Amino acid sequence: xxxxxxxxxxxxxxxxxxxxxxxxxxxxxxxxxxxxxxxxxxxxxxxxxxxxxxxxxxxxxxxxxxxxxxxxxxxxxxxxxxxxxxxxxxxxxxxxxxxxxxxxxxxxxxxxxxxxxxxxxxxxxxxxxxxxxxxxxxxxxxxxxxxxxxxxxxxxxxxxxxxxxxxxxxxxxxxxxxxxxxxxxxxxxxxxxxxxxxxxxxxxxxxxxxxxxxxxxxxxxxxxxxxxxxxxxxxxxxxxxxxxxxxxxxxxxxxxxxxxxxxxxxxxxxxxxxxxxxxxxxxxxxxxxxxxxxxxxxxxxxxxxxxxxxxxxxxxxxxxxxxxxxxxxxxxxxxxxxxxxxxxxxxxxxxxxxxxxxxxxxxxxxxxxxxxxxxxxxxxxxxxxxxxxxxxxxxxxxxxxxxxxxxxxxxxxxxxxxxxxxxxxxxxxxxxxxxxxxxxxxxxxxxxxxxxxxxxxxxxxxxxxxxxxxxxxxxxxxxxxxxxxxxxxxxxxxxxxxxxxxxxxxxxxxxxxxxxxxxxxxxxxxxxxxxxxxxxxxxxxxxxxxxxxxxxxxxxxxxxxxxxxxxxxxxxxxxxxxxxxxxxxxxxxxxxxxxxxxxxxxxxxxxxxxxxxxxxxxxxxxxxxxxxxxxxxxxxxxxxxxxxxxxxxxxxxxxxxxxxxxxxxxxxxxxxxxxxxxxxxxxxxxxxxxxxxxxxxxxxxxxxxxxxxxxxxxxxxxxxxxxxxxxxxxx
Length: 731
Ligand SMILES: *[C@@H]1O[C@H](CO)[C@@H](O)[C@H](O)[C@H]1NC(C)=O
Ligand SMILES: *[C@@H]1O[C@H](CO)[C@@H](O)[C@H](O)[C@H]1NC(C)=O
Ligand SMILES: *[C@@H]1O[C@H](CO)[C@@H](O)[C@H](O)[C@H]1NC(C)=O
Ligand SMILES: *[C@@H]1O[C@H](CO)[C@@H](O)[C@H](O)[C@H]1NC(C)=O
Ligand SMILES: *[C@@H]1O[C@H](CO)[C@@H](O)[C@H](O)[C@H]1NC(C)=O
Ligand SMILES: *[C@@H]1O[C@H](CO)[C@@H](O)[C@H](O)[C@H]1NC(C)=O
Ligand SMILES: *[C@@H]1O[C@H](CO)[C@@H](O)[C@H](O)[C@H]1NC(C)=O
Ligand SMILES: *[C@@H]1O[C@H](CO)[C@@H](O)[C@H](O)[C@H]1NC(C)=O
Ligand SMILES: *[C@@H]1O[C@H](CO)[C@@H](O)[C@H](O)[C@H]1NC(C)=O
Ligand SMILES: *[C@@H]1O[C@H](CO)[C@@H](O)[C@H](O)[C@H]1NC(C)=O
Ligand SMILES: *[C@@H]1O[C@H](CO)[C@@H](O)[C@H](O)[C@H]1NC(C)=O
Ligand SMILES: *[C@@H]1O[C@H](CO)[C@@H](O)[C@H](O)[C@H]1NC(C)=O
What we know:
- Its main location: membrane.
- By secondary structure, the protein is an alpha/beta fold.
- Among the domains are: about 545-695, Leucine-rich repeat, LRR (right-handed beta-alpha superhelix), CATH 3.80.10; about 695-730, no CATH class.
- The chain has 7 helices and 46 strands.
- The strands form 6 sheets. The chain has a 23-stranded mixed β-sheet, with no helix packed on it. The protein has a 9-stranded parallel β-sheet with strand order 29-31-33-35-39-41-43-45-46.
- One 2-acetamido-2-deoxy-beta-D-glucopyranose (NAG) binds near residues 176, 177 and 198.
């Protein structure tokens, strides 16, 4: 009280000493809250603090003079001029914290979040007796939490999250140092040990975040009315408590990614205010009890990645017109039986994940009633029947993922109504027929995986309309005909896999400069250090953010190499020259075709990691020096007609098996094929000799047998498309 009086007196002194205009100013000023001068003691302390801080962005450059409102991030009490709040969030500050920062007796808020402070938490913070909020999140504070902080008896918020090297045991006093503590956030640190018992009883506590630490011990029940509880990604064990003290208050409960065992207790559904429940990545077992029905307040329910079994719950949440579940994730469990029809009554559902279970039966046609649905993942089950036509009712659909089931039938032309669709994955089913031309309407498509089905027909122009395409796999189907000239004209394309079909003719030339990724978009640098994944495994990770109270936001990560796979077809001709300039290409597989000609220099293809040209009829010398292709880990040129000499110093020594089945090739490192005569032979000669067998002779055969017929039929007969024509005319 005394101090306050003194400073009021100080503020008045100029009134008596100075002339009238100033009196007027000061009177005017007393109406504004920020007119008072910064207390000189506090000013000195701030200057000292500033002197030790590194401030490359010059965020504190306004810290001059005595006008409090000019001091960025500080707030003064409007009559005394004492600093009551220091909020320096996100100012790119780093360096040391001068002990002068602990000399603000009236400071109520200290926020240093989102900077780069790399010191231990100063123990003298315990002197800041008036502190109500201490927020040090997202820095690089390290060490332990000093015990002196337990003197902060007025503290309401203690936020330490996002300091990876801050750890040790959770301070034993944290549950009973301030009876006013409402928010304790220590997530994304390195705390270990158990939750101190007293914390379970701290009545004032509402918001507790201990997620992403190394905490362990049985999960105990909390005895206060919590609003927010996050214990995600720790090592908590035991069974799930009921949280009954929070029955009316708890809105977010996240205990995902721990080692929780046992069943899901029905009492969890009595949490009346719950909006988010995440129990994923635990070891929960048994059936979901039929009486587990959540209120209409629940927005997000994630039980994925457990060992839950039995039938899918037929009713998991109450739905009303206005509200209801947005996201339901029951994937990666052992649920069996059919998809219950009741699920289609969750009208507000935006994302449904049922993948990696043992579900049988058909996809319910009424799924089309879920008009807000944006992501549906039913993959890796045993579902049969066809994709119901009614699914076009989900007109906002962004991702339709039904791969690895037993689905049959054709792709319906009406699916063109799904014009928002970005991801279509129907791979590994038994779907037949052709790609309907109408699918040109799905112009938002970015990822299309139709691989391992029974699809047939030629590549129609529908695909050209998918101008945002990043991944296209038609592998292991029965597609035939020529590869269209627009094949390489997709700007965003990352991977095309056409392997294991019956495509014939030439590889189209030209337009190789269109795709940014093939031409070194450089966007996939992160892949470089990862092991080579088999091309069959498309990996899209969909991540979801709950935005607002009735909206989800989706994004996905596509991890695949930048590549082209045309293997196991009947392509002939030479490799178009443009291929050899693709600096971004990581994967190129042209094996098992009937390609011929020379393979030019690979030197420009600096991103190459896998090159398979085996089982073709390439000839001439192997491509020149590859020692600069440092990422190349798989090279297969076997079973071709290469000839000549492969010197060891050109970098081929790394790939001992790469040249098998090229009888005229002399590989220096192995000595194979380097017989006394064959070594000096000119490459061209060997090429001519090799020519007698191989696919080209098939062509000759085709010509010679048909010479007895007239020429027109011959030409037709030798291309795949003509066979249909001949059959038709015969009938
Ligand atoms: C000083 O601040 C308090 C609360 O911050 C406010 O209620 C009061 O009106 C302010 N006084 C003046 C003179 O601005
Ligand atoms: C202090 O600065 C603020 C904003 O910069 C200004 O509105 C106010 O008049 C200044 N007060 C004095 C006493 O200079
Ligand atoms: C933050 O500071 C670093 C140097 O410490 C500087 O390189 C960087 O550009 C700064 N960032 C911003 C957003 O000012
Ligand atoms: C306060 O800041 C304003 C600009 O924000 C500046 O014009 C003024 O000169 C500053 N006052 C003092 C006393 O530094
Ligand atoms: C600190 O300042 C930021 C913006 O500069 C604001 O968003 C935040 O709410 C403030 N925090 C406190 C505790 O006053
Ligand atoms: C921390 O410093 C690094 C450089 O040292 C900078 O890139 C980064 O933006 C800084 N972070 C913050 C939150 O200022
Ligand atoms: C303080 O901490 C919380 C973390 O709980 C954070 O969300 C908030 O934005 C932080 N920063 C400020 C300036 O209040
Ligand atoms: C906190 O609780 C422990 C026992 O659990 C007790 O020894 C200690 O005195 C308490 N401290 C405060 C400040 O209440
Ligand atoms: C689970 O937690 C571990 C650390 O305990 C972390 O490495 C892992 O990424 C987390 N998994 C998920 C799915 O968040
Ligand atoms: C649930 O927690 C897991 C593990 O931390 C996380 O990967 C997942 O995104 C969370 N689910 C939702 C819907 O937020
Ligand atoms: C749900 O779908 C069924 C069959 O598709 C249909 O008969 C019914 O009218 C739909 N209900 C609503 C509310 O749209
Ligand atoms: C897949 O579906 C076919 C009929 O379309 C059926 O004969 C077969 O048994 C099913 N396979 C499995 C594993 O369900």
